[in-house]
């Protein structure tokens, strides 16, 4: 049995959260023995087919323009970060979901990062859960939002610890 954490991150905040969730999952799965593994994969490297033994997929990315990123918003972010990476610009959560082979058996839980400001609507986690369901991932649900102070960041105090604790809880779903 394995758990896969797939993340998209332009400035590193979502990567940090994904790493903490994966650590929490490993802690939570600790008692299940060496077959229970957790992999952490950048979405630009994630294959369309999940490995057969994946029981739980945790999928997270930054909120861009009130939703999941698009090629233009990723270009914008990478430009701000002075990074030129065609692979990361071309593939985000939206593109991965559109080409992934759907599974009705795998539980998929989404998360996102976004700016903690009043009245800023939209969540990549919500959009991703909806897109997954539309593609045939019957057991997709929206998970947590983790907050950054502003664009590009930093993460608010306590968010990494909260992500780790959430990962420990998620292990029960695998
Ligand atoms: C092009 C662009 C659009 C963004 N749009 C939103 C938005 O609609 N709502 C929001 O809360 N944050 C928005 N942000 C801020 C990102 O969500 C924030 O920078 C993100 O959490 C950083 O994650 P990362 O370091 O993993 O890339 C935007 C950032 C960029 C670069």
From TrEMBL:
Pfam families named among the record's database cross-references: Flavodoxin_1
Record domain Flavodoxin-like: where: 3-171
Domain of life where this protein originates: Bacteria
InterPro entries the UniProt entry points to: Flavodoxin/NO_synth, Flavodoxin_CS, Flavoprotein-like_sf
Gene3D superfamilies documented for this protein: 3.40.50.360
A GO term for molecular function: FMN binding
Protein name per the record: Flavodoxin-like domain-containing protein
Provenance organism: Raineyella antarctica
């Amino acid at each position: 049995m394995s758990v896969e954490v797939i993340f998209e991150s332009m400035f590193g905040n979502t990567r940090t959260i994904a790493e903490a969730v994966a650590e929490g999952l490993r802690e939570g799965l600790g008692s299940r023995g060496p077959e229970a593994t957790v992999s952490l994969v950048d979405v630009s490297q994630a294959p369309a087919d999940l490995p057969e033994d994946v029981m739980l997929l945790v999928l997270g990315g930054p909120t861009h323009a009130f939703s999941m990123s698009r090629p233009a918003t990723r270009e914008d972010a990478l430009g701000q970060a002075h990074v030129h990476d065609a692979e990361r610009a071309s593939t985000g959560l939206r593109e991965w979901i559109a080409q992934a082979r759907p599974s009705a058996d795998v539980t998929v839980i989404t998360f996102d990062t976004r700016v903690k400001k009043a009245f800023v609507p939209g969540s990549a986690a919500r959009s991703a859960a909806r897109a997954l369901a539309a593609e045939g991932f019957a057991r997709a649900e929206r998970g947590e939002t983790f907050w950054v102070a502003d664009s590009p960041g930093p993460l608010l105090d306590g968010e990494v610890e909260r992500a780790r604790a959430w990962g420990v809880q998620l292990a029960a779903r695998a």
